[in-house]
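Following up on my earlier thread - several people asked me to post the actual chain instead of describing it. Fair enough. Here it is, all 350 residues.
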Amino acid sequence: MSVGNDRKIIVTGGAGMIGSALIWALNRRGITNILVVDRLSSDPRWKNLAPLAFDDYMDADDFLRRVVSKPDSLGQIGFVFHLGACSSTTEEDAGYLMRNNFTYSRELAIWAVGHRIRFVYASSAATYGDGSQGMSDEMLDLHRLRPLNIYGYSKHLFDCWSKQRGISRGILGLKFFNIFGPNEDHKGDMRSVVHKAFHEINETGALRLFRSHRPDYADGEQRRDFLYVKDAVEMTLHLAGRPVSGGLHNIGSGVASTWLELAQAVFEAMKRPPRIEFVDMPVHLRDRYQYFTQADIGKLLKSGYDQPVAPLREAVLDYVRSYLQPGLHLGDEPGDQPAPSRTVLPPPKA
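Reply from S.P.:
Thanks for posting it. Predicted structure:
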C-alpha cells in the first residue's frame, strides 16, 4: 500500500515539532489523507499547522474516547504515527505524565494492533538514563535502564509494557535523541538550545551555558547527540515503510557533539563573534541531567537507511537562516510545493 490511497494516516501530536515536520514531509510527497490529533490551547502551536495540508483535525481526548467507545468509526486507517506526549523533562506531576504518556499510548496501541493498523510511536533517549547501560536499541533486558526523570520513565514504561505483552515486534518504537529544528517555538523551556541561543544572542549578544558539575567534564564539554528534525522524519518514514521493522530503533545522528560546538555553530550562522558565559546549573536539575548521549544507529543502518545525515554545523545554518531569522515555519518556504509521492508503506499484516 502506498501512502496517499484511501487509507488514512493518523498523526497524534501533529501540531508539535516532529508531528508537523512529519506532515510537512508527507505533503512534499503529495500526501494529504491525514487526520491530525492534538490538544491545541493558548500557545502558538496552531501556526505549525497553518501551512500544511490534511483532511481533518480532532482533539486528542475526543480521539481517544472514539477509539475506546467506537473503535470502528474512524474509517480505514493505514498508519498511526503516535508522536503526541508531554515531553517536559522537568514536569513533576507524575500522575499527569503517566496518564498522558503511558495510559494514552497503551490504549491507542491496543486499538491499532487489534485492527491491524501499523503503529509507530515516539519513545525517547531519556529512557537510557545516565547511559551507564549503554545506548543500544538492541538491548534485550529493558529493565536494566534507569531513567533520570518521570518523563523518561513514562516512556520507558510503555517500551517495557509492549515487550511484556509480546507486541513490541509488531509495532515500531522510535527513541528520539536531541531533535531540533523549525516548529518548536511553542515548547517554552523545552525548546532546543539552538532556538534559545538564537533569541538570547539577538537580545544580549552572548550565550549562557550551564557549567559542568562533574569533574570528568569541563564546562561546555557535555555532549549530546543532536539531530535535525528533517533527518528525524526521513528516518521515521524509512522505518515505517519497512514491513519487517518493529521493536525499538534509535533516531539520532550517531555523533556526540559538545555544547561548545553547538554554540559555535549558532554564532557562525548568525554571523556574530562568539561570546559564551557559564552559569551554575540549578540544583534541582543536577541529578537528572544527561552529560552524554550518543545514539547507536547500527540497527537503522542495517535496515537500509542510506541518506546522509546533516552535520551539526550545516543543520544549524539551515535552521537559523532559513527559519529563525525570517520567522518561517515548515511549509512557509517560498516555492515549497508538494512533490509527487515517493514513500511507499506496506499494508498492515493480515
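Residues 337-350 have pLDDT under 50 and may be disordered. That should answer part of your original question.
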